[in-house]
Amino acid sequence: MRLLRSGRWALLTALFSFYAAAQDASLCAACHGADGNSTTAGTPSIAGQPKLFIENQLILFREELRPSDQMLPVVKGMKDPDIIKLADHFSKLPAKRVAQGPDDPALMQSGEAAAKKLRCGVCHLSDFSGQKQMPRLALQREEYLLSEMKAYRDGKRKGGDTIMAAALYGVSDAELTALAHFLARKDPQRRSTAPARAR
Fold it and tell me: Model-level pTM?
């Protein structure tokens, strides 16, 4: 009988935890999209981001190490187990293209060249899908990528990685614009946009 009761409490606890995580996820969906793919300008997509990256960012927001008037009310007082569940939930959702308009071939090629020159693939992986604490750049919102890269370059990004500030130091607006255009449209399943070399 005692075993049955403990099993029932374990089930109720699990259901409550699932419900709490679902409630938090629905709150996230208001800005980041129902499936984690943002349709709101200036708001990043979080679907398919590495779990550790999401966890780290939520903790930075919660501890006010990465200031955000929008995020603080959501994460203030959030417990670590809830952060882990949210990160797990969104990390498992597929990333989708949210970029508007057609690909610009010139920007795609110059953006790909910039990604190679700046060695973005060393940390974010060769398909820019991200890993561990490094975010997914592929299929991220274009204007969000551009604003964040400029903030890193200009030393205005708080709670960020100093490696990124160093990597983007001195990079021109034109190059960042091309890079953002390329990454926002870079499907990890799609091959290089660079023209094939003659053999």
Answer: 0.83
